[in-house]
Structure prediction request, 553 residues.
Amino acid sequence: MIVTAQKPLDEILDFLSPYNSILIAGCDGCTQPPRGLREARTLAQLLELGGKLRSKNFNLRVTTLPKQCDSYLTLTTLKTQIADIEAILSLACGLGVQTITQVLPDCPAFPSQNTLFIGAEIREDSTLEERCAACGDCMLAITGGICPIARCAKSLLNGPCGGSQQGKCEIDPEKDCAWDLVIKRLEKLGRVSALEEIRAPRNFGQVVRPGRIIG
Amino acid sequence: MCAICYSSCPAKAIDIIYYDINSLTKYLENAKEEYRSDSLVILCKGSAPDFQDVETLFGISEFIPLSVPCVGRIPPELLLKALSHMGINKIYILACDEDYCRFERGSSITEHRITALNVFLEQFDYGKELIKLERNSLKVKADRNKCINCGNCVFYCPYDAAKLEHGAASFDLELCRGCGLCVTLCPAFALDLEHWEEDRISALISDLSKEKKKTDILVLRCQWSVFPKLDEEFDSNVHIMDMPCAARVDPLHILEAFRQGIEGILIAACPEEDCKSKTGSKEAKRSATALKKTLSQVGLEERFHFCSVSPRYPEAFREELKQFKVRIESACSKEVRQ
Prediction:
């Protein structure tokens, strides 16, 4: 899922300061933690508390929609709710804000979140960890289902490096060395010989920004 | 701290801190005067946190209320004493379902005792079925129409009671133990917990804010972390709200309370190793840590405190509350001076 973290409240209050009537729009889509109606209401309470400190009384309304990346859904859900709204504050990933901007160009939309990465939630210690870098050249088939692009600090294609110490990464001993995990996994699968072939550097020429797929 | 050993000991060789037979007898004597009824209703806090549903459950509107953490701690001797010497003619007991009992065997032991006592009382011509037992458990309610299929409840349920089925969360109520963790984490308000519904708690908080005292302090307390005295009273500005588990404490309610003018909020949870809901205390602590960080953005972090207390240490809660109260009252008076 897409992992986001709420922006500092002061930053949000700064960019909302010219507006009074604001619609806080949650997204029931793929963000983790899900930024739906509960998050929208929570943020509304927080903005009111923060607004008070700046002697600012917002007129806040909350809503949520199934997924803000769907332009049709976003338009049909929001257009009936913005008659007296001066700005929309989105709880979605960066995509949501841009979809709102595209379908409702007359209503300024702002992000309440910083979109961080594609990651997974680890139940035991309640952390969210990056798992996929959306690199466009997936090598999970070779690395036993563990991604060194997203999980190795250096995104090495031929690892581990000399900084791998007892299964941990030299840049952060809290983090597992991705290549250590890859090798252990491949040993278990009896496929460690697949790593004997040196992989050439990735061809970044194939990675086109902005990405576009037709059809 | 279940006191089942106490209520079972034939030699009266065991002492307990809470609700021993003397304090219960004294309470009943006073309550008899106060309520002027000959019916006694004993509830386990887990089966019903208050007496609102007694009329529906037992068909009586006037009664002497007695709420205890687990009915298994009530010595049979007290029931006999009440019926034979204290002018009580009928006793109604509401226990948790057997597999829901927070003290493992409290509920089942109570059933055995009542059966034996009723036989005994009938044989001695006191009457038939003088002690009536009902069972109740408070569990999750899921609204399929609101569910967004995110799987948070499945991910976090400590009892594996939740699953995603046909596009929405559904619960195996046999497994649900009513901790409320899933309700607090549901992003779509699709879940609620019987008696501790989202709207009900919000309404209680709003009511508190309407009757504004000088410095209002709200205490959200796991009902298993503190065993209050039978005649416990707090200062009028301290508002105690018992929760089924600290996991049911919702950060949204805390923000609502602050916004409506509550000056200080204290959460009392059980220590993790004593949690009656597996991961409840742990999750509550995690959530409180995150909330404190959030509150620091609006200058309220010092107005919020999370503490772990246990009935093992009877003064622990009162001490925490005392310190918190001093902190909040001095912060408020400082603010007024400024």
In short: The two ends of chain B are 47 Å apart (CA to CA). Residues 316-337 of chain B form the longest helix (22 residues). Chain B touches chain A at residues 148, 150, 152, 155-156, 186-189, 251-252, 255-256, 258-259, 283, 286, 294, 297-300 (CB under 8 Å).
